[in-house]
TrEMBL record:
GO terms for cellular component: cytoplasm. Transmembrane segments: none annotated. Disulfide bonds join 44-49. Residues 339-447 form the Pyridine nucleotide-disulphide oxidoreductase dimerisation domain. Keywords: Cytoplasm, Disulfide bond, FAD, Flavoprotein, NAD, Nucleotide-binding, Oxidoreductase, Redox-active center. Residues 7-319 form the FAD/NAD(P)-binding domain. It catalyses: N(6)-[(R)-dihydrolipoyl]-L-lysyl-[protein] + NAD(+) = N(6)-[(R)-lipoyl]-L-lysyl-[protein] + NADH + H(+). Binds 1 FAD per subunit. This is Dihydrolipoyl dehydrogenase. Its cofactor is FAD. The active site is at residue 437. PANTHER family: DIHYDROLIPOYL DEHYDROGENASE, DISULFIDE OXIDOREDUCTASE.
Length: 460
């Protein structure tokens, strides 16, 4: 078996977590090898964040052209040219991929193409070559889950992976799962003209978000003609030549051309030598401490294989953290609560910190104050004709502990919200800062003004 000299950092998996660790370690003067079996950029760039957001933008363009008359603009909407949409989407991914490959070179990272297996706590083997690292970072990411007995056939039963490369707009879709990925695809397909029904076992759509946000999403989806059934479980699917019949545990059935299974993503940790080399797993996820150390000395884990939020920017933060930790910089651990989350359906949902319910559960009902600023009072939101709110949750007489936004384009506002949360700002401190008029960011300013006891554009 061929052998190579030991690297300071040996990384298995070149997605958001793995390549961020590689770049930061290299910036810090460490020698780095990055092993990737598919394409650097991983799920996010090739099969996740970027292609879905391109589809969502195309969906917004479709809606705007269909609904332009409300702005006094006459257009005629002729339909969706799916090959055209796909080439727009693929073009973006290709450009970013090229840029990322350039960064791998510029950072002098040794890129190893191939499938790696951990063969010792300090070594990974790829096609007969053994690579050693004084430190090893596991970053093998996640894959789509399905339910027992529900097989993804790529034709009528799809995961997000197949859904991203469809060459047509299905006439009707059942989306199994009302979480982030489910509602994003539901939103896209509805804008593209499909009949859509979401089935969610929990009592509400986007169940990880503040209840008030779910209500706005549900109200808006209803207006958009997106059907949904919450609090009901999937029972089975029957395939026909031209589609599927989905049955639910309450006895209902729904016919559709396509079933999208969006029931979450599980870790990629099987048959990779992790457990054999002493790495403790819990339900497939790699168990780490807050410094992302696994049960084996000098072996770390980052990104989706670590239990918690499955987000690309968490992967980046994990990767940077581990590289800095290895370099002895003593970085501050990544706290999932401080990570902003965005769901990019129409309307968008964005949040950071605790929901009102979580805050009350932790601190007690009387220790929490929440204020919901309705976007009806926000000029820019009116111009955009969007509805929703900016909700700020604070500890009574204390700092802001949660911010929740719903409405068109609010994903961009969460960047400010996460500064407020992570800096543990008091509402009166934020109230002092000036927001440009007319922007949607004023809604955040207004909510803090109101919490600081000096509301400006708030109706009693
Ligand atoms: C449809 C969809 C939409 C999403 N949208 C968003 C979004 O808008 N915003 C957001 O923040 N997150 C989003 N995500 C989540 C995001 O993609 C993940 O959180 C992120 O990619 C996790 O990064 P990672 O590095 O942990 O894993 P991954 O990106 O999955 O990377 C792991 C890499 O490891 C490689 N690998 C695995 N095993 C081996 C092996 N044995 N040898 C060599 N290489 C291996 C894989 O090929 C892969 O490239 C989305 C996900 C999906 C599926």
């Amino acid at each position: 078996m061929a052998d190579t000299a030991a690297f300071d950092v040996l990384i298995l998996g070149g997605g958001s977590g793995g390549y961020a660790a590689a770049f930061r370690a290299s910036e810090l003067g460490l020698s780095v090898a990055l092993i990737e079996k598919d394409k650097v950029g991983g799920t996010c760039l090739h099969y996740g964040c970027i292609p879905t957001k391109a589809l969502l933008h195309a969906a917004e363009v479709a809606d705007q052209s269909r609904e332009s008359e409300q702005f006094g603009v006459k257009t005629s909407f002729e339909g969706i040219d799916m090959p055209g949409v796909n080439s727009y989407k693929d073009g973006i991914v290709a450009r970013l991929y090229k840029g990322l490959q350039g960064l791998v070179k510029a950072n002098k990272v040794t890129f190893v193409e191939g499938e790696g297996t951990l063969v010792a706590p300090n070594a990974v083997e790829v096609a007969g070559t053994r690579y050693e690292g004084r430190n090893v970072v596991l970053a093998t990411g996640s894959r789509n889950r399905t339910l027992p007995g529900l097989e993804i056939d790529g034709t009528h039963v799809l995961s997000s992976y197949e859904a991203l490369t469809l060459d047509r707009v299905p006439s009707s879709v059942v989306v199994l799962g009302g979480g982030v990925i489910g509602v994003e695809f539901a939103s896209v397909w509805r804008s593209f003209g499909a009949e859509v029904t979401i089935v969610e076992a929990l009592p509400r759509l986007v169940p990880a978000e503040d209840e008030a946000a779910s209500k706005v999403v549900e109200r808006t989806f209803r207006k958009r003609g997106i059907g949904f059934k919450t609090g009901v479980r999937f029972a089975g699917v029957e395939k026909r030549d031209d589609g599927v019949t989905v049955s639910l545990e309450n006895g209902e059935t729904i016919d559709a051309e396509v079933l999208l299974v969006a029931v979450g993503r599980g870790p990629v940790t099987e048959n990779l030598g992790y457990e054999e080399n002493g790495v403790t797993l819990d339900r497939g996820f790699v168990v780490t401490d807050e410094r992302l150390r696994t049960s084996v000395p000098n072996v770390y884990a980052v990104g989706d294989i670590v239990p918690g939020l499955q987000l690309a920017h968490r992967g980046f933060a994990h990767g940077i953290f581990v590289a800095e930790h290895i370099a002895g910089l003593n970085p501050v651990p990544v706290d999932d609560l401080g990570i902003p989350k965005v769901t990019y359906c129409d309307p968008e949902v964005a949040s950071v910190g605790l929901t009102e319910a979580q805050a009350k559960e932790r601190l007690g009902d009387d220790k929490v104050e929440a204020l919901e600023y309705n976007l009806a009072g926000n000029g820019k939101s009116q111009i955009l004709k969007t509805q929703g709110f900016a909700k700020v949750v604070r500890e009574k007489d204390g700092p802001v502990i949660g911010i929740h936004l719903v409405g068109a384009r609010v994903g961009e506002l969460i960047a400010e919200a996460q500064l407020i949360y992570n800096w543990e700002a008091m509402p009166h401190e934020v109230a002092q800062l000036i927001h440009p008029h007319p922007t949607q960011s004023e809604a955040l300013g207004e909510a803090h003004l109101a919490l600081a006891g000096k509301p400006l554009h708030v109706h009693g």
